[in-house]
Amino acid sequence: MADFVHLHTHTEFSLLDGAASIKKIISRVKELGMTSCAITDHGVMYGVVDFYREALAQGIKPVIGCEVYMAPRSRFDKVYEYDSKYAHLILLCENETGYKNLSYIVSKGFTEGFYYKPRIDFELLSEHHEGLIALSACLAGEIPRALAADDYEKAKKIGEKYVNLFGKDNFFIELQDHSLPEQKRINPQLVRLSRELGVGLVATNDIHYAKKEDAKYQDVLMCIQMQKTVEDSDRMRFETDEFYIKSPEEMEKLFAYAPSAITNTAEIAKRCNVDFDFETRHLPSYKVPDGKTAWEYLNELCEDGIKRRYDEVTPELAERLRYELSVIKNMGFVDYFLIVWDFINFAKNNGVGVGPGRGSAAGSMVSYALGITDVDPIKYNLIFERFLNPERVSMPDIDVDFAPEGRQKVIDYVVEKYGKDNVAQIITFGTMKARLAIRDVGRALNISYAETDKVAKLVPNDLNITIEKALNVSQELKELYDNEPKIKELIDTARALEGLARHAGTHAAGVVICSEPIVNYMPLQMNDDVLTTQFVKDTVESMGLLKMDFLGLRNLTVINNTVKLIEKTRGIKIDLSKLDYDKKEVYDLISTGNTDGVFQIESAGMKSFMQELKPTCLEDIIAGIALYRPGPMDSIPKYVYNKNHPDKVTYKHELLADILDVTYGCIVYQ
């Protein structure tokens, strides 16, 4: 058996076209004895990092690539009559330069060439082909298309154009055989063309699913994409069930007439060596006033801020500030804090409502001194190491709430300050969760809405529920599955597609700020009119880029409007950062449950809990919000009882008394 590598592979990130998850593809490749595999999704690079990680985890060498769409004229031409018939081309990254070029090309396909699909053109390839290996692609490639139209000379001219650009060692003629008559007809001409051009052949299978028997699931997936049913005759479909991960033996047998097409796949894979760097951070630098370093400027801002925050800066306060600053400096986050301070300062100075602080950042005195948060960490005995720990080196995570109507203003400010190429929002993917998969598949199989709805509603509405779990817990669902063939087909198909990425969107809050053009690290795309990364937030962070959460919080608008109304009607100017949190009347009102519109305590469950708890201080409300979620909820009766019977509070050890006294002996916080 010769070494063979699949170099034309579509994963689930060829959205609603590829019917196999990355994990499933890599597992099958390994099972069949292959040592390498490429990822070449349609026009995107969404899955390349996940593919890279999964491949390495299973001992498979990953080859990073993409099947790009070539515009018939320029990528800027967008006239339906001439520009709707794009062609395919496989591009594989030979090295880091190739990865950067592919990332750039794919990004431009979205930002400049998008017309039905993200299209590139020969001009882009001419400028950014270094480090890339090209394959002539499937029947939708320019060369196969010309041959299918019986125009050998045109095919040869196209081939010469690509050979002149990439060089004879970096352009290959692709052979495929999915039992399609057209492929069998043009393959001898492709062999002749490779000989006349002096370039190598490469055998591929246009993989869209893992196993042959998965073809029916991919067919349903295509129906979901096109909003058709399997019974529709006027729909696009794959003509055979040969688009699966074939074994090296199957490929050798198919292409026995061209053995070099098999061996060349392994040679190409050996040449392709791209590694992702998950160790280096790429934080942007903050431009400080002339004559100062970032470290000096941060210290200056903190010293001014702590004097504003506290009537007297005691030695203990000064020491806490000094300690935090030293940790921030040693961990390399000086510029990070200046960047966050700057855009929050901009928001406050430009009438944009900003939240008082969210998450562990409120445990930092530096955050408090800079005005990033408005929560005194000393008063509430908050721990800085919960936010930044010298023994756990990870990026700090400061989530910031903005009034929704001003959020975009702050993002625009960041884009202007750091450059439009260096700032982007973050992509997110909707997946085919259990109920959605059933509904999608039901439509595609032309099962009535009533029947599909009934089945979907039998899946419990629990967090992380799967169809498999639902069959185990819902007796009625299991009976339908066992006794009705149509429902069995529905559930089996939905189960096969469950969890696959379904569509791309924009993350509600995530923004990336980089020290150089983001496209040097990852591809970008347009979601409507928003520039986003093609990698999700966890991948963005793992690659060392600065990810901020700019959250839009409607309650801030309500609060700001209320403050303005009070000033207008009563002449009273309220400073939200200096509110008195010991007003008995406020806690009495909360205890009545009359809290419609009050952030975090307006749900029916929280209203009932507040009536039962009868909070008397802010700590009670903080603890109540922390308790009212799955798991900690079990401690609510004990918490309420201990609050009303403080003499009954006991501690398993006296050292816990100082820690648990504010929560009446209950362990509430992490």
Note down, in words, how this protein is organized.
It contains 28 helices and 13 strands. Helix 8 (181-197) links the parallel strand 6 and strand 7 (200-203). It is of the alpha/beta class and 670 residues long. The longest helix is centred in the N-terminal third of the chain and has 17 residues, at 181-197. The model has no long low-confidence stretch (mean pLDDT 93). Strands 1, 2, 3, 4, 5, 6 and 7 form a seven-stranded mixed sheet that branches. Helix 6 packs across helix 8, helix 17 (434-444) packs antiparallel against helix 18 (449-457) and helix 25 packs across helix 26 (618-627).
In summary, what is this structure?
This protein is of the alpha/beta class.
CATH architecture group name of the largest domain: Alpha-Beta Barrel
In DSSP terms, counting alpha (H) and pi (I) runs of 4 or more, how many helices? 28
CATH class of the largest domain: Alpha Beta
CATH topology of the largest domain: TIM Barrel
Q: Could you give the topology of this structure?
A:
Layout: H1 22-31, E1 36-39, H2 48-57, E2 61-70, H3 80-83, E3 87-93, H4 96-111, E4 119-120, H5 122-127, E5 132-135, H6 142-148, H7 152-166, E6 171-175, H8 181-197, E7 200-203, H9 215-226, H10 248-254, H11 259-271, H12 294-309, H13 315-330, H14 334-349, H15 365-370, E8 399-402, H16 404-418, E9 423-431, H17 434-444, H18 449-457, H19 467-473, H20 475-483, H21 485-497, E10 501-513, E11 524-527, E12 530-533, H22 537-542, E13 546-552, H23 554-570, H24 584-591, H25 604-613, H26 618-627, H27 636-644, H28 657-660
Parallel strand pairs: 1-2, 2-4, 5-6, 6-7, 8-13
Antiparallel strand pairs: 2-3, 3-5, 9-10, 10-13, 11-12
Helix pairs in contact: 6-7, 6-8, 9-17, 14-16, 17-18, 17-21, 19-20, 20-21, 25-26
